[in-house]
């Protein structure tokens, strides 16, 4: 864990450097597509250190100057399965985005949906040395959170302080400079499979890109598709992706829970492929053109040529009705939504004041999904699209791009994470050296 | 329309492509194992080259630096040969000669305006221009400087006019005084510059005469004295610069008026007033000394002095004085 902590700190510095340079790339590595956006940051004065994500979070400060999407290759369930294939997909996306932008990017912020995210709520207490809260005290209270056993081979991807409390005054965003005796904090920590992250870092390194940040796609799609009041009052974002479905719960503008269901649109496609005995590409085409979750009488009469490539007349002339396709798709979609419901129930989503659920992601475009989702997830379900950001092409404004857009917002206006705070003094090995340097500076 | 009996090609034995590489199914029986679809992903080399090309430094170097280097290097290589350099130089000189010798540029005539015949002759001999000559070879500035060196020339304007004429417009110095010094007799203008030497003062008896060393440098003062001399002018013979310091006015009968160094005109006007009142200068006075403002003094002729003393009953001692 220490290892990724250092990596994250290093990434933070790289991100600062990229902000200074003014150009940064956003890479959304999904199971069905790889999207690359290139941002030009208008104010190159560095990251603004504000707590939380505002309504139009930092949108005036960047502009999308290059955008490209390509079909994903070698990614399964949101994880890199074939390194070479993924690398060439990333190269394709980055190259065409660079070509559109006309600039070279070296720094990239990436998000991925897989790697089995697990979320933990931590709490820590700290008695203040002198009654004013300093940066060191914040560092100490974060360090005093007792970390549960996250398991072998797992790394912390996000660790965001969501709440500070000072002597029974809770809900402080920034406790620094306040007066009190006892500081406590709540930390939301999200762990992922370490091997997946290592693979991703290695894959980007092979593309000559420097990693300037990482995020879970469930988190970033929540940032982009939940509107301000939803983020404030509590809402869940369900990102129906290709290989996996991300779930994130927001409250008071902080993510407090994240999880993922390892099922997505690709599974629907493969069901169609198996059910109709057609290749995956045909199944994907049928799904996108004729898919749905509610069958009507009209659909019985609408026949779809599914074809075949065998040269056999009977096989190549097959036809199915749209009702049959819907009959194949619906159970899988229900299964995904029920699984998401189970995860939300397990997280205690019922206890939130607002029960808003927002569906986004590529698979949320299935016609009639909102009706189905309302039956499973409750009445307060809406379909979400990402915020509009400056310079984004029209083709990249659909719900499939909510995680890419959210990553833009995340890049322009990052949330403070655990590693952005000071290191507690006694854990600083370079302390003595620093003191010696200070002595030299003062006396020479 | 599909044929009712589909001909089976070697579909069964054709290598099947990977599923996500295959094209959307087409129902044609002409389906054959086509060449594998081109990978849209750039190769690693192409990717790196494109990134290199997008690097601003490399871009500038290739777009500006490389052409500049090629041009400079090629030119240097071409000009490294002595023979080529010479041939280029000779082409240039030939071209220049051709243009220079065109009839439009030839100056055939030297015209001198505003100069007396003597001066015109002097100008011609000074310039000594070999005519006809191309106007591009003429150094008008040098010619002008050469003419301006002549003492009689106040100002000169040299220009090439159409029709191959070199026009020299001269403004001559106007002689204002005759100046006699130890070396000879000169005409000088009112700034004191010499105009010409003359042999006899009577050649220009219309001009006033000045004499003495340094008279030319104080000629402005002489001018002022002459204008204020008024009623004495019929008797004036000339002005003498004494010791390069002050003026003497010489009248006929060898009378001299010794003017002071400072404000000679004022002193002279006072003397004229005195003369008009008391007829001073008509008497037998050799010199009027005005050098001391407070105490003008007269020098009488020796005979008059003796007579005056006798009249006053002063018996001078008989001496040689």
How would you portray this structure in words?
The complex is a heterodimer of chains A (444) and B (321). Chain A has helices at residues 2-21, 83-101, 135-143, 194-206, 217-225, 228-233, 265-276, 280-290, 297-301, 313-316, 322-347, 369-377, 402-412, 431-443, and strands at 23-29, 33-41, 62-71, 75-76, 79-80, 107-112, 118-127, 154-166, 169-172, 182-193, 210-216, 235-240, 245-251, 254-261, 303-305, 319-321, 356-360, 381-383. Chain A is of the alpha+beta class. Among the domains of chain A are: 118-193, Dna Ligase, domain 1; 265-332, Nucleotidyltransferase, domain 5. In chain A, helix 2 packs across helix 4 (194-206) and helix 7 (265-276) runs antiparallel to helix 11 (322-347). The radius of gyration of chain A is 24 Å and the shape is globular. Chain A starts with a helix and ends with a helix. In chain A, 50% of the residues are buried. Chain B has 321 residues and is α/β, with parallel strands linked by helices. Chain B has eight helices and 14 strands. Chain A binds chain B through residues 70-71, 73, 88-89, 91-92, 94-95, 98-99, 102-104, 207-208, 279-282, 285, 307-313, 316, and chain B through 2, 4, 6, 8-9, 11, 19-20, 22, 24-27, 29, 31, 39-42, 44, 46-48, 50-51, 54-55.
């Amino acid at each position: 864990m220490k290892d990724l902590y250092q990596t994250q700190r290093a990434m933070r510095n790289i991100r600062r450097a990229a902000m200074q340079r003014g150009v940064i790339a956003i890479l959304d590595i999904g199971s069905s597509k790889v999207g690359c956006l290139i941002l030009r940051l208008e104010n190159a004065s560095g990251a603004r250190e504000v707590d939380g994500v505002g309504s139009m979070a930092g949108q005036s400060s960047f502009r999308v100057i290059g955008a490209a999407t390509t079909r994903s290759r070698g990614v399964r369930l949101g994880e890199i399965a074939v390194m070479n294939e993924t690398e060439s997909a990333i190269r394709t996306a980055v190259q065409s985005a660079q070509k559109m932008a006309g600039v070279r990017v070296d720094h990239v912020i990436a998000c991925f949906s897989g790697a089995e995210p697990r979320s933990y709520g931590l709490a820590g207490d700290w008695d203040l040395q002198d009654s004013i809260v300093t940066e060191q005290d914040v560092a100490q209270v974060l360090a005093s959170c007792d970390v549960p056993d996250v398991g072998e081979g797992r790394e912390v991807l996000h660790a965001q302080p969501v709440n500070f409390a000072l002597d029974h005054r809770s809900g402080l965003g920034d406790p620094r400079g306040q007066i009190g005796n006892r500081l406590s904090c709540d930390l939301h920590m999200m762990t992922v499979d370490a091997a997946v992250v290592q693979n991703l870092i290695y894959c980007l390194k092979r593309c000559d890109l420097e990693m300037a940040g990482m995020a879970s796609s469930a988190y970033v799609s929540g940032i982009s598709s939940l509107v301000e009041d939803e983020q404030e009052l509590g809402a869940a974002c369900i990102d129906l992706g290709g290989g996996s479905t991300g779930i994130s719960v927001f409250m008071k503008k902080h993510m407090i829970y994240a999880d993922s269901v390892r099922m997505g649109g690709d599974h629907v496609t493969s069901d169609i492929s198996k059910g109709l005995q057609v290749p995956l590409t045909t199944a994907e085409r049928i799904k996108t053109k004729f898919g749905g979750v509610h069958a009507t009488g009209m659909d019985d009469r609408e026949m779809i040529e599914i074809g075949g490539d065998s040269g056999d007349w009977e096989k190549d002339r097959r036809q199915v009705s749209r009702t049959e396709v819907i009959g194949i798709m619906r159970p899988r979609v229900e299964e995904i939504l029920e699984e998401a419901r189970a995860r939300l129930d397990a997280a205690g989503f019922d206890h939130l004041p607002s029960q808003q659920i927002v569906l986004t992601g590529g698979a949320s475009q299935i016609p009639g999904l909102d009706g189905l989702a309302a039956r499973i997830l409750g009445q307060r379900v809406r379909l979400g699209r990402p915020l509009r950001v400056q310079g984004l092409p029209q083709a990249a404004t659909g719900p499939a791009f909510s995680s890419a857009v959210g990553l833009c917002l995340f890049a322009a206006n990052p949330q403070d994470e655990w590693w952005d705070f000071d290191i507690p003094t006694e854990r600083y090995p370079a302390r003595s050296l620093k003191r010696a340097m200070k002595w030299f500076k003062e006396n020479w | 329309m599909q044929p009712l009996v589909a001909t089976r090609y070697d579909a069964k034995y054709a290598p099947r492509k990977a599923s996500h590489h295959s094209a959307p199914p087409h129902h044609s029986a002409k389906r054959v194992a086509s060449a594998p679809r081109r990978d849209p992903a750039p190769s690693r080399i192409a990717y790196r080259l494109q990134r290199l090309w997008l690097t601003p430094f490399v871009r500038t170097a290739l777009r500006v630096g490389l052409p500049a280097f090629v041009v400079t290097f090629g030119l240097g290589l071409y000009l490294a040969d002595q023979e080529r350099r010479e041939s280029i130089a000779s082409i240039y000189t030939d071209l220049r000669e051709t243009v220079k010798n065109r009839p439009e540029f030839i100056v055939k005539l030297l015209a001198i305006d505003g100069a007396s015949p003597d001066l015109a002759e002097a100008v011609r001999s000074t310039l000594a221009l070999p005519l006809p000559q191309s106007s591009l070879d003429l150094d008008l500035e040098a010619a002008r400087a050469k003419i301006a060196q002549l003492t009689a020339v106040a100002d000169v304007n040299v220009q090439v006019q159409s029709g191959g004429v070199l026009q020299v417009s001269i403004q001559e110095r106007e002689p204002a005084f005759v100046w006699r010094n130890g070396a000879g007799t000169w005409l000088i203008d009112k700034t004191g510059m010499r105009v010409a030497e003359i042999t006899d003062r009577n050649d220009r008896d219309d001009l006033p005469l000045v004499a003495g060393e340094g008279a030319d440098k104080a000629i402005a003062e002489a001018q002022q004295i002459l204008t204020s001399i008024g009623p004495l002018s019929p008797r004036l013979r000339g002005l003498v610069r004494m010791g390069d310091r002050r003026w003497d006015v010489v009248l006929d009968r060898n009378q001299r008026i010794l003017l002071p160094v400072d404000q000679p005109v004022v002193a002279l006007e006072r003397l004229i007033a005195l003369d008009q009142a008391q007829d001073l200068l008509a008497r037998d006075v050799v010199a009027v000394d005005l050098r001391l403002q407070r105490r003008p003094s007269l020098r009488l002729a020796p005979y008059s002095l003796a007579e005056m003393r006798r009249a006053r009953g002063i018996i001078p001692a008989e001496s040689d004085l």
